[in-house]
Amino acid sequence: METVSQSIQGIPLNHYILLSAIIFTIGVIGVLIRRNAIIIFMSVELMLNAVNLLLTAFSVYWGDASGQVFVFFIMALAAAEVAIGLAILTMIYRNTNSTDINILNRLKW
Amino acid sequence: MSALITITILALLLLYLGLFKAKKALLPVALIGLMVALVLSLMEWDSNAAPIFSNMMLYDRFAVAFSGITIFLTILIIALSKDYFERISSNVAEYYALILFSLAGIILMVSYHNLSMLFIGIEIMSVSLYILAGIKKRDFASNEAALKYFLMGAFSTGILLFGVTLIYGASGSFDLEGIKQYILKDPTAVSPLLYTGITLLIVGLSFKVGAAPFHFWVPDVYEGSPSLISAYMSTVVKVAGFAAFLRLIMFSFAPLQDFWIPMIIGMSVLSLLIGNVTAVYQQHFKRMLAYSSISHVGYMLFAIIALNGSSDNAVFVYAAAYSVATIIAFGVLILLQGQVGNDSFDSFNGLARKNPFLALTLTIAMLSLAGIPLTAGFIGKFMMFSKALSSYHIFLVVFAALNAMIGIFYYFKVIVAMYFKEEDRKELIVPVYFKLVLGFSALVTIALGVYPDFIASLI
Predict the structure, then answer these.
(1) Are B295 and B275 within 8 A, CB to CB?
(2) What is the pLDDT of residue B427?
């Protein structure tokens, strides 16, 4: 365990922050520009994983385990959200035969 | 704390009742269980509460007051659900259980003392609500509402979590007290990560409460969801989201006021403007209520802008007044949709002649939402405006007063339709449960408006 922490600490913290920020931004852009509900869903997972990475890095740098425990909470939540999200997508696919979010525009103004 | 345990066990009990086909027992058991939870939570009223469960939660007066009001509102909404879910599907026990699970998440949200509990509370609440928004499986609008709510909810959770992570990175703690100590140590030299973290956290939470410019999902989701669930989302969930927001800022971020106050002022002004102006152009009652809920978030943000020891009280009064009036409006809406099949303003024509009781309660609700004196809504607005004035935000108050006048215009559209437009219509049948809830809520609205003292300095 000691060696893992040491090797994580071998890289400056700023690199982790930058990497996570880039992955997170890719996720945000994916949510905003993609039109397929499943891809949007994957982009959200990307955002959550960027958060997980950053939490682990901070946790090692602070020498505090609570950050890593938080990662487990996020993973559990991501699994629950996948279950709900895919169920909702299946329900919509049965009614419309499509997962494109552009047909979901009947509610407006 | 025992309220949280009671609600969770109650939800499991209801699932078992559904399993053993005891459908008649569902509603009474849910109502009695929630009343027990309400009493249990009020019994924990303690001004010297200490954090429990290794500093995870703090059941102080703020938490007791807000869990009390959310449980109370849930009782009113569940009482309206008589025969409502049966029309949608034959498996009704799950719906009650899901509402109660989301209420359990809400109790966590108003009593957290650690950011991980905030996150878990929000997620327990949201995941149940994603399902509830889509329970009309064949209805296209309900499908769309569920998907939009789900995608927006998951997206905002990601943003919120990134904010939490950055705050952890700066301060080394998820604990509200720890973060506060870190900021107080040297407020001028906090890490830039913390500022980014606060911004992202505020953005994530404003998605959840539906404050402009992060409001665009609100009208679609409220309109598409089944009306009873919309009532739940626009009252209980909104109050809880706001309580969580306020608790975070009051506990931890108060020393950094200069940084976040401009953001909140911008959000408040935008919410007022977008909510009120767009509501004027609505033709349908339900969508009008959705926009009006955005504008009420704008008023409630005043308490955060003028943050001091009594902000929690002002939010509490405003939230209670707004929620009770909104429940009346949704109660009438459910009856109207069920029996007329339409919720445009024209379908209210001549309601006062056939259903004087419904028209009277709805009028009281609309007056309260518009903030006319002698109703609870006036007291709420009065407290908010006086708070903002006490911190010299004069232009903000003038702007809000102008918006309140626009509000009167669209709320009175309903009253005018009910009383002054004649139309031949059939009398709506009002079940006993509806009569009780509507009458009681109207009484509460008037009582708070005439005699506000007994809740105005509660917390």
Answers:
(1) yes
(2) 84
The pLDDT-based confidence of A109 (bands split at 50, 70, 90) is: very low
Number of domains, chain B? 1
Query: How far is B279 from B151, CA to CA, in rounded Å?
Result: 25
Chain B CB within 8 Å of residue A71 CB: no
More confident residue, A107 or B376: B376
Say what the ipTM of the complex is.
0.94
Compare all CA atoms of chain A with the CA of B139 and give the residue at the minimum distance.
A95
Contact A37, B147 (CB under 8 A): yes
B283 touches A at CB < 8 Å: no
Residue A104 has pLDDT above 80, yes or no: no
Q: What's the helix, strand, coil split of chain A in %, to 5?
A: 80, 0, 15
pLDDT tens-digit readout, B20-58: 888 888 999 999 999 999 999 998 887 778 888 888 999
**Domain limits for position B337:** 2-456
Largest CA distance in chain B: 70
Domain positions in chain A: 11-101
d(CA B211, CA B270): 8
**CATH code of domain A11-101:** 1.10.287.3510
- Chain-chain contact of B155 with A47 (C-beta, under 8 angstroms): yes
